[in-house]
What does this fold into?
Amino acid sequence: MAAAFVLVTGPATATAAAPAAEAVTDGAARFEVLTPTLIRMQYAGDGAFTDATTFNVVNRSFPAPAYTTSVTADGYREIRTSALTLRYRRNSGPFTAANLSVAITTTGATARPVYPSYCAASTACEAENALVTGGVTPGYDHQGHTGTGFATGYEATGSGVQYDVDVPTAGTWRLALRYANAVGSDNQSVTRTLTAHVNGATGPRFSLPPTGSWDTWSTGAVSVALRAGLNTITVAQDAADSGRVNLDSLAVTPGSSTDYPAPATDLRTTGYGAGPASQLGGWYRSLDNLPNGLPGPDALHPGILNRGGWYLLDDTRTALLSANHTVSARPGHGAQPYQDGYFFGYGPDYKRALADLNALTGGAALLPQTAYGVWFSRFWGYRTADYQNTLLPAFRRNFTPLDWLVVDTDWKKPVAWDGWNWNTDLFPDPQAFLTWTKQMNLDTSFNVHPEIDATDPRFPAANAAAGGLPVQSDGHTHYFDWSNPAHLGAYQALHTPFEQQGVRNWWLDYCGGCGSSIASDPHVAPDNLINQAYADHDTGRGLRGFAFSRIGGTEHGSLDASNFALGPWSERRNTLAFTGDTYSTWDTLAYEVRFTAGEAAAGLSNVTHDLGGFHGGHLADDMYARWMQFGAFQPVERMHSDHGDRLPWDYPGAAQASAQKFLRLREALVPYTYTSARQANQSGLPIVRPMYLEYPAQEAAYTAGGEYLYGDNLLVAPITTPNDANGNGSVPVWVPPGSWTDYFTGTTHTGPATVTLTAPLSRMPVLVRAGGLVPTRTDYVHSQKDSVAARLTVTVAAGADGSFSLYADAGEGNGYQSGASTSTPLSWADGARSFTVGATTGGFPGAPTARAYTLRVTNSGAPAAVLVDGVQVPETAWAYNRNSRTVTVTTASLAVNAAHTVTLTGAAADNPATGEVLGVGGLCLDVRGGVAADGQPVQVYTCNHSAAQQVGHPGDDTVRVLSRCLNAAGTANKAAVTVAACTGAAGQSWTRRADGSLLNPASGRCLDVPDSNRTPGAVQLQLYDCVGTDGQVWQLPPGPITGPGGLCTDIADADPSSAAAVQLFGCNGTDAQRWSAPGDASIRVFGKCLDVSNAGTANGTPVQLFDCNGSGAQKWVSRADGTLYNAQSGRCLDDPGNRQQPGDTLQIYDCNAGTAQRFRLG
It folds into this structure.
């Protein structure tokens, strides 16, 4: 069972060994130049170097970099790359700040790295950097300590810290501790004891008197006999010890010494590395239950980035990882010292540092494509019927996407917390439930706590498979030691039946009190080990393997507990890190904005929060809406709470509208987000990026913590404070150099500058860099599995050239690792005002063979014309919004195996007042010969954009061309149609109808091409009975739909997204009011259709903008009384209550021919 659990395929299994030719060996020191900015530095006193893959480092097979090496006259080994010069004093022993330096070319700084794993004699070695056993973890919640923290958690037998200490000679040495001892967990303040163990043998006992408070530190010492060289020293709580002290550091000094050494370094050290104290970002295991104590920037555990421009990743104590991902110990070196580390020397090029880290420790996990959509869970005892009859129908009814359904702990019975059986009270037929989720295109994740109760029916089998499971003090809760292969196999076997039924993923809720399992091997933290195992197991099932859990430590001890001997590096490639049970406060929201970016700087791209917070019932409307906005621009958008309200319809009104809008936007953004996730996987550049990654030379970038870059082209600044009295929120935003255009309003800002951006609940500050391209889905989908993205909208901010390589694959499985994916280059040439879609390369099963594009160019003036592949398109294919300075162009479906170009040509003040009228066979309405004379025949002719084809349909119901009016010579069938001077005669009145016809009211007949003749210029147009042939369908240039009160039918906020509200608004001629009728009874704007929501038929059903689908909900009939009739519902378009006010959202209602239902197609 254990072997099956750890089986994995993919790049992480590649050997980390480097060819010998790439190594420079100098005595007991060996250096491997991996990149110009990354050097492995290994010291083995016995000459036994390690080339095997470690749990952290899964790749050392880099392209060979250029470097030189030599020995200087003063006895130093020098290695020079284009970025670094390393100097090591030959034959001087293990690496220390005294014998090793690295000069960084770009900054001129000289680094003197140290190995926190190496504890030399007469040195204060920080206890928080030691290997830990039992319940000991790093702590940070007291003052007066040295280093970054202290060791805490001496509460039970077996707890301890361990260091390998190097001494020059054998003999008696003084082992001293710096400790604090105050009122302990037993409410006593007494002398405490711990025991020293040396090289596996029990040594003397420490007597540690009280220090008065936990912020006051003292020293205690014992004498120990040590061998020359390396000695393994453990300070442990044995059975006879009382423990309950905190250790700051330990030091081995000569036996006669009475002094305690000063701190060894001013670097910021952890058990996994060291670097300058000016760290950038960092990570934390979780943010559980921290209402008023959210960790500050300095409290975050460091990643590799800091303003000093270098870092030493200490991999010395990390376990080895075999090709099939079993864990084993490193070879021993006896009494000889050993060090293994990686020097990152990047200067201000932080992106290069993350690229090196990504290549070294494995690509950031590329989650299934659906994971970048929308997740929902709630700590609530939902039943199958609740999911099927209430919850999911509400998502669908409200056009709110959902990709992942996460089921919290109540699914288990008889033990809801530690159980491994279905609660059939809630799920009477589990298989039917999981079959239903699959039919609904939902992925599922189920909550588990990693232990098992003795009363669970599956306990006997698990206990037998494990060879006996340890039990907690309650006598019935059993836990697993994941370092034991039998335990790991038994633990995995508990999952298998549910996976066979259809469970996709497991939410490992390994929090304080949520599961007592351990990893007894101190060289791998429990989180890292089990998260690797979960990811491997799913990969072995043919899925995109990932763990969904907390990261980098253990549930035992403090909330931020971490085994610093390892660090977070393996979590990058394995885990979707969720930040735990947060409180629902504005401060938490503001902190999460900074925290995701901070973890990104540590190389952790996949981070997710409980949106809205876990601890909070019903939130203030503005807090809820702002949290959901924030989630739309996070690596993973996931709603969760403890019995709280996190669904949009829990907040009727503006908050609901805002939440649904941003959830739809989130789903639409998946092509952009997924491409960014692939970029993180390949280059290490995370999805969310702190500003200094892109702008290291701008000092303001380091303090702009309330904003971040989302992918390459979006700057996001979530609003994290309550709205003002006018319903607006605001946030200060540092605008980087260049021009940046607001994604929602089109307002352009020029940086560098700091501005205050204000937005109602319907918007948030999101800026697109000049030249930035943002591809999104055009069509609405309930989930990503509904369909591949065959229609794309690309938003471009004009002002600079730009490019973007759109990535796609099957979205699940691991075929992408062997090339089953596509890449489509997108580019914008600013000078030419030209957008190009390059030919798609690659392929995967189900990849689209054609795509239709909607191009939205912001920060732009109106063009005079638009060309697609060099051919001018009709005015129905594009529109301009002067308020947002945005051009919108829609294309036909275009083959992906060829390049295509959209070009904006010329300049105009606004949308054109005239344009081509397309008729039968794609021919254009035309004045014969282009002669502007009364009586000149009107015909259809090859479209040529001449003046004879520039037709207008102004508000007086005339159709005008060449300064004349379309004129019917009579009222009978076959009455000739010509142009004539405009007189207002009845023969010059034409009503545009939803079916595409032009009705002459005086005759009751329609403009007609005789016999639908498709020969250019062959026949003169005529009047004829309206019979709906293609010879009576005319696609006029877009125009307004004038409604009650002289207001125009308008898309709210000019939002082209599906499910956007349709309203009345002041007529302004913008793109949100330019409607067309292509002849299929639909009425269109932004390339989408006027739609009755949910195909409803009841009075009061709202209408909306939605993807055109040919359904009855999108069929409209223009009636003689001026109403727009929807036959499917039997009702008419209506202004509720005939309010005739801007902002009235339109509906359908019983047809009554009243003024509330009069809508004229212009």
Observations:
- The radius of gyration is 35 Å.
- The mean pLDDT is 95.
- The chain has six domains: 2-114+302-361, 119-264, 369-689, 770-905, 920-1032, 1041-1161.
- Residues 586-601 form the longest helix (16 residues).
